[in-house]
User: Fold Asp/Glu racemase from Candidatus Erwinia dacicola.
Amino acid sequence: MKKQVIQVINPNTSQAMTETIGVAARAVAGANTAILAVCPTQGVPSIEGHFDEAIAAIGVLDQVKAGRDQGVCGHVIACFGDPGLLAARELAQGPVVGIAEAAMHMATLVATRFSIVTTLPRTLIIARHLLLQYGFEHNCAELHAIDLPVLSLEDGSGIAHEKVRQRCIQAKREDGSGAIVLGCGGMADLAQTLTRELGIPVIDGVTAAVKMVESLVALGLNTSKHGDLDYPIRKNLSGQFERLN
Assistant:
């Protein structure tokens, strides 16, 4: 039987983080699912603010178009800001799931309240906006930042990983949350270890999104092309954007 392919897009240009994300995705993918982990060739090395997200969204759209042309069955946007999510759904035929959206949904299925642990304090407002957008503001007890940049998760020192661990312990102790959501795709390899240590669900959005896409594909549910998520109105895009025509 030919395997179905899920494209997992790391919206930044870090190959190391793309590999971390790909390993986590493959660990939970079903036997009939192949994971295609990709990242843009141009853009930002990490996504830590609104400016970064705006640039990264173009790379996401490039990858979604490439994946659609290759016949992948669905797409995961593996950045906790879910950059370009709705635009990607316009371009895609199959389902597109962002890791923040997936993790928040999963958390509400296993707990009434959850906490989020992310990287820099300046990104907390982005997570708050997503909580409001997705309707989970009343389910989130608190947001925490380890106050280290995204790429510190890949520097090999273990400092960022230990800070994530300590913040998760703090969140369980102080917030009264039944689950913790990890707020960065680069934390994908920490969830299972932290779940065992803390004794509560610690949810990584990459793996959650992969399983959601698999479920949508199994149910025969593609992105609706009726209304605002219909394919983009055909226009003659110019300059560097001609490639998206």
About this structure: DSSP finds eight helices and eight strands in the chain.
